[in-house]
Amino acid sequence: MFSAYLDFIRIRFLMMLAYRVNYYSGILIYTLNIGVYYFTWQAIYGSQQTLGGFTVDQMTTYVAVSWMARAFYFNNLDREIANDIRDGSVAIQFIRPYNYVFVKMMQGLGEGLFRLLLFMGPGMIIACILFPVKLPTDPAAWTAFLFMLLMSFLINSQINIFTGLLSFFVENNEGMMRMKRVLVDLFSGVIVPISLFPGWLSGIMKFLPFQAITFLPSSVFTGRIQGTGIWQVLGIQLLWFAILILPIFLMWRSARHRLFVQGG
Amino acid sequence: MVFYTSLIWEYMKNYIKTKLTYRADFWVEVLSDLLFQATNLIFILVIFQHTNSLGGWSEAEVVFVYGYFMIPYGIFMSFINLWGFSERYIVKGEMDRVLTRPAHSLFQVILENIDPPSIIGSFVGAVILGICWVQLDIPFGIVELLVLIVMVIGSVMIYTGVYTALTAISFFSDAPTGILPLMFNIQGYGRYPITIYNRLIQVVLTWIAPFAFVGVYPASYFLDQEITKSFALLTPVVGIVFLTGGILFWNYGVRKYRGAGS
Hints:
The complex is a heterodimer.
Chain A: H1 2-18, H2 21-45, E1 50-51, E2 54-55, H3 56-73, H4 77-86, H5 90-95, H6 100-130, H7 139-165, H8 174-187, H9 199-205, H10 215-222, H11 228-258
Antiparallel strand pairs in A: 1-2
Helix pairs in contact in A: 1-6, 2-3, 2-6, 3-6, 3-10, 4-7, 6-7, 7-8, 7-10, 7-11
Chain B: H1 2-20, H2 23-47, H3 59-79, H4 85-91, H5 94-99, H6 105-112, H7 119-135, H8 142-168, H9 179-186, H10 199-208, H11 216-219, H12 226-232, H13 235-256
Helix pairs in contact in B: 3-7, 3-8, 8-13
């Protein structure tokens, strides 16, 4: 059974590989985005030494690694699920001898693997050449970061699956999916590190899962969080991963009772 | 001219009829578009919590530029919506239908794809601009209003010219998919004071992909920013040059176009 799930990773990976040309321009776009924030931050720092606990070098690294991590964990699982539900093909998924949600996660993983090797990897190299990015020297930071990156992917995919499954309950999920995308970019810390938010907002962010997607792993990568602090943020990620399983499970269960496919 | 005006009217009536069928979607679409644009405003507001100036520009000035940027952008997005051109008109062959009709092909394609809800972004931009206008204590009279209108028209012409030319690439090549989103991301650079970028990027944004003219240059006409002010009055000129170039390239593409078969 497990090998069947592994096959979903493989198939999606190969499918992405066939369309790899589409992603070359993506590397350029992400580099451009890093550029605009890099120059803006340079201008902001001007006279200041640190902002929100970041030195100017750390901020450059933060911006680069956050955008390139987004290149890895980003996927359209929400849209895929919503489409399956809208066109009714989810009915076929119900009768197949596997768990649809797991399959989606595996497909996401296949896409993620592709994005890691052909998008984030080369993108990070280009970013290191163009901008003064300081890579961590401590092997522990690298290990922790790579593991946290996997967790970012899982948590982001869980949020996507959750948003996609909402299509079972609302007629038009399009706006919800768009808003989710903006919220994740904003609150995960890709656009502004959470520690720079006004106090009340960064206080709220501590109780939401979004920080686990970008802010925490990137903080480890820049060296803002070191030593035992790493275990703590890793714990936050694991906790959110565990918590988010519950709503997905409940939604999936009640969706099965609710589903009514027209035509076919 | 009368012919073209009546066409606009007919297309508009059709658009409204189809849209009113899905009223809830309309507002959701508007709201999520605005939220998407708001991320950059939030970025500006957050960073000015930690600094007083961005390369010599105050918060009100940067937000002023941002508000200006939203106005031509909203107009462009609602009237010149060429995103799916290659897919719909070349691959599916709808271009052949367009070409059999008497009106100019670009005009028809634009009218078939208008997306008026985006104009709400322009209104929001105008409100933001207005608030900063008052805060910065800039005089406002008939001259300023006229200049503002000319600048906005110039900026919209630049957008239209650049994207028309890029869309016309589809007449020659199958997969120009990468370049449109690329441009879309470059134009974001025009929102911030251009002086913070390095020389090369400044040159590109001024003369090659002139997106400094859809934001920072024209807006700085009203501000005390000497370096960029000298460029402000070039906005309509650059607009005319790029729009003419874009349309000429489109016409050239149409002449070379052979159809996708069957």
